[in-house]
Structures are given as C-alpha cells and as structure tokens.
C-alpha cells in the first residue's frame, strides 16, 4: 500500500493531499489499493487548551497571582502551567475579549470600543479582519473540537439577529459549539469529538428550550 503523505500544517486550511501512486479503474484489479480515509486530527501530543475570561476582575485579584480572592483551582492550574504577567487589559468588554481571543491589539481587530459604539473610524468598526484569525479557529483547522461558553460580545450589532449573517458568531467564526449564560466567557478546545452543536444568538436574552443566549 502506498504511504499516505503527511499533512503540512504551516498553511491553513491544511491543503488537501493528492494521492500518489497507481490509479486503477477496476475494483477487482489486485493492484487496487488506496490509503484509508483519515479524518483531520491534531498532531500527536497536542495539548488541550482552556481560556477563561472573567469580567470586572483586576489582574492581581486572584490568589494565583498573589491576590486576596481565594481561587484554589486556578492556583493548581497555574502551578502546572505558565503564568503570564503582562496582559494588557483594555478596561472594556469587547476589546479585551477580541484581543485575548486573537492575540492582537484590539484596534488591529477592529474593536477599539464595545460593539454598540462602533463607527467607520479605523480600528473601531467592530469587524474582525479576515487576516486575524482567533485562536479557536486556528485550532479547529488543525483538527480540534472547540466550544465557547458564556458571554459573547464580539459580534457587530447588525449581525446579532436570528437572520444573521453568522460569520462572526462563535458557532462559525471559532467554535463548533456555543452556549452562553453569564458574564464569564470560556473558550475550551479539546481533541475529543463533540457531538452536541447548538446555535445561540450573541447579545440576545431570548429564552429557548435547549440553550440560553449570551447576555
């Protein structure tokens, strides 16, 4: 059986691999052998990724960073990982979220202010450029299953209705699954398959039987 070429991950989406070898036209031909279908999966040893964003909490509030609020779980996570001490908050909801989720300056991703005060001024239109992919989208294109839970305040206000468009919604822009209920925003990515998928409306307080909507 011909060996399956390795996928190259330096370009996303990962380009399709063209089979190399003999192509037969008769299924009964003894030389009719092809590599098995292989679904896209993260590289071997790829870690799970969890990002937690809490509104209205100072950088040094958590005990994980020496603050007065006891957060033992955060402390245990921090003790086993890396702690970064130069996070530049924008002191506003939408800009902080978009900057954290993309790793870019908030003006670079069009979020100089909250979405409700968007204008046509450069860096303030609340539209994330298609050249600035969020972390979850990069992971999804590498085979991760992704999800976002909590507050979503990164969608232009004219795109938040049930009519869409949905390109900036977490269900399409970054995550396979999205639900929201509070002021805590959490991005979770895992290598395991996630079957449940739902669509929730950003910034809408609509009651539904299956999922709650972002606040």
Describe the protein in words.
The chain has 215 residues and is mostly loops. The chain has a domain at 49-190. The protein contains four helices and four strands, in the order βαααβαββ. The chain has helices spanning 72-80, 93-102, 135-140, 170-173; strands at residues 49-54, 145-149, 177-179, 184-190. It has a four-stranded mixed β-sheet with strand order 1-4-2-3. It is extended and about 70 Å long. The termini are far apart.
Provide the structure class.
Answer: little secondary structure
- Our estimate of the beta-strand percent is 5-15%
Q: Would you report the number of β strands?
A: 4
Radius of gyration: 21 Å
Instruction: Name the helix and strand elements from N-terminus to C-terminus, one letter apiece.
Output: EHHHEHEE
Low-confidence stretches: 179-201, 203-215
Mean pLDDT, all residues: 77
Q: What is the global morphology?
A: extended
Number of helices: 4
Helix content: 10-25%
State the separation between the terminal residues, measured CA to CA.
54 Å
Strand order of the largest sheet: 1-4-2-3
Sheet having the most strands: 4 strands, mixed
């Amino acid at each position: 059986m011909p060996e399956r070429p390795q996928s190259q991950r330096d370009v996303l989406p990962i380009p399709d691999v063209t089979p190399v070898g003999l192509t037969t036209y008769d299924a009964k031909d003894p030389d009719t052998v092809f590599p098995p279908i292989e679904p896209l999966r993260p590289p071997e040893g790829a870690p799970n990724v969890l990002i937690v964003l809490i509104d209205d909490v100072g950088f040094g509030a958590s005990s994980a960073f020496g603050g007065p609020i006891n957060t033992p779980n955060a402390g245990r996570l921090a003790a086993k990982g890396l702690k970064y001490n130069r996070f530049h908050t924008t002191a506003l909801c939408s800009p902080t979220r978009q900057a954290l989720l993309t790793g870019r300056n908030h003006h670079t991703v069009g979020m100089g202010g909250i979405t409700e005060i968007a204008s046509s001024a450069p860096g303030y239109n609340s539209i994330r450029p298609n050249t600035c992919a969020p972390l979850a989208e990069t992971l999804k294109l590498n085979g991760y299953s992704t999800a976002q839970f909590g507050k979503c305040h990164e969608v232009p206000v004219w795109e938040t209705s049930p009519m869409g468009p949905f390109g900036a919604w977490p269900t399409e822009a970054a995550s396979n699954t999205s639900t929201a209920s509070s002021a805590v925003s959490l991005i979770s990515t895992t290598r395991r398959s996630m079957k449940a998928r739902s669509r929730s409306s950003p910034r809408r307080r609509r009651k539904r039987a299956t999922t709650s909507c972002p606040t």
